[in-house]
Amino acid sequence: MVGVNRTDRLYALVEELRAVAPRPRSASWLARRFEVSARTIERDIGALQQAGTAIWAEPGRSGGYCLDRQHSLPPVNLTPSEAVAMAVSLEGLSGTPFQQAAQAALRKVVAVMQDHDVQAARRLASRIHLLGSDDEPRAVPSWIADALSAGYVLRIGYTDREGAPTVRDVEPLGYVGSATGWYLVGWCRLRDGVRAFRTDRITSSVATAEVPAPRDLRPEDLAIPYGEVRQLSLDD
């Protein structure tokens, strides 16, 4: 495999580990297979792990790298323009509950790009500038951003539109986002009903240890009088 570029080698590494899964392949075996150093294999495996590929190291003389074929995909190969387009679009998530996850996703994509593509993307990105403002949205704390996936009851300090402060225990149910702000939708125990809380009005928040019983978020709970609410889709 002399002359194989890094991206092709990353694909081939994943396929090699998938083919023998759940048995391991040692770094030295993979180095001989791909005609590179064991150190290069370790760097490649690290890049794949950073990108979310389900590879782990199995210790011992007969150990090596293993892959969970049920939870892995080959790395995605983006062009420099596509990587920069993704970075620009992710800037639009500033101040939303998904800002930190978006930044992590971009780092994973860059980690598995070819070195010369990364350099080209950085050169292109250096020519793009974004105009900031004095009223940019503040970042949403991680425990609010992770509220849905973690499933814990949140205890929040909240200031309503009249400026009245309250402390509420909220069971997170969903998010509603628009160009002007993001709302955490949840079952408010103070009001004994579903409420939408603007994330920029949440003054404090703590994730409790309580995991509440599941509640369904009904269409009528999303009858927000600011426009049509559409459900997010991962498909085109």
TrEMBL record:
Ranges of residues in domain WYL: 144-204
InterPro entries: CBASS_pafABC_assoc_protein, HTH_11, WH-like_DNA-bd_sf, WH_DNA-bd_sf, WYL_dom
Transmembrane segment boundaries: none
Domain annotation Helix-turn-helix type: ranges: 9-65
SUPFAM superfamilies named in the record: Winged helix' DNA-binding domain
Name the record gives this protein: Transcriptional regulator
